[in-house]
Write a structure and sequence with these properties.
Blueprint (H helix, E strand, L loop, with lengths): L8 E5 L3 H13 L3 E5 L2 H11 L3 E5 L7 H10 L7 E6 L4 H10 L3 E4 L4 H13 L12 E4 L2 E4 L4 E4 L2 E3 L3 H12 L5 E2 H9 L8 H14 L6 E4 L3 E4 L3
Parallel strand pairs: 1-2, 1-3, 3-4, 4-5
Antiparallel strand pairs: 6-7, 7-8, 8-9, 10-12, 11-12
Bound molecules: calcium ion.
The site of calcium ion (CA) has 5 residues, from loops.
Length: 234
């Protein structure tokens, strides 16, 4: 890793002063430059003006809520690509799904530990999302699983496994973006494309089949209750 010459900037959009204080303290300790905004409107303005490297976005805000902020960030070409981590409360899976669908990069549920948050921030900042079509010839690795994108071949401990095209697409998509949660709709788009009509249930069928074929590594595809799935080497 190269030495950072400029601190990465993180914008906190959060209305609870004690949470802002804790976040600010810990982020600055980790050498991030911190900007804060205490309402959705102010946060949106700050994001547009300062174009931070990452936005920590509380969903429960007075006035314009976090989901609306996220929607507006994604609508504006200037802020469309900003990284966004949602801060959410327990039991708000429906909001999390909406946020991820709107294009939030990740979420973290309150109350969270500082180390968990820092790990999540680092992971999101590190994430390099290859564009479609850039992956030809690439080999993906996740523990004992190896995926040869050019050959459309997956191996476990060096041994090739038989996958359908949908299963292969699903596995390679999840491995490529491991650690990140995807809704069923996202995964359906990734696997079959948006033009094919399938119900969200079908993704569960693909996941079940894929888990079975992954054998003892099936647990790498983690169900995130009420939200979707994520790939994680556990
Ligand atoms: Ca709040």
């Amino acid at each position: 890793m190269s030495t950072a010459t400029m601190a990465q900037r993180i914008l906190i959009i959060e209305d609870e002063p004690d949470i802002i204080e804790v976040l600010k303290y810990n982020l600055e300790k980790n050498h991030y430059q911190v900007l804060t905004a205490e309402s959705g409107e102010a946060g949106l303005a700050a994001a547009r003006e300062s174009l931070p490297d990452l936005v920590l976005l509380d969903l429960m805000l007075p006035g314009m809520d976090g989901l609306e902020v996220c929607r507006k960030l994604r609508e504006d070409p200037r802020t469309r690509d900003l990284l966004v981590i949602m801060l959410t409360a327990k039991g708000t899976e429906a909001d999390i799904v909406v946020g991820l669908t709107l294009g939030a990069d990740d979420y973290i549920v309150k109350p969270f530990s500082t180390s968990e948050l820092m790990a999540r921030i680092k992971a999101v900042l590190r994430r390099v999302e290859p564009r479609e079509g850039e992956s030809a010839g690439e080999t993906l690795k996740a523990g004992a699983i190896t995926i040869d994108m050019a050959r459309h071949e997956a191996r476990i401990e060096g041994k090739a496994i038989e996958l359908t095209l949908s299963e292969f697409k699903l596995l390679s998509f999840l491995v490529k973006k491991k650690g990140r949660v995807f809704t069923r709709d996202h995964l359906l788009d990734a696997v079959v494309g948006p033009d094919v009509f399938v119900t969200a249930r079908n993704i569960d069928v693909h996941v079940a089949a894929l888990r079975k074929k992954l054998g003892k590594y099936g647990g790498y595809i983690v169900t995130v209750r009420g939200v979707g799935y994520r790939f994680e080497e556990v």
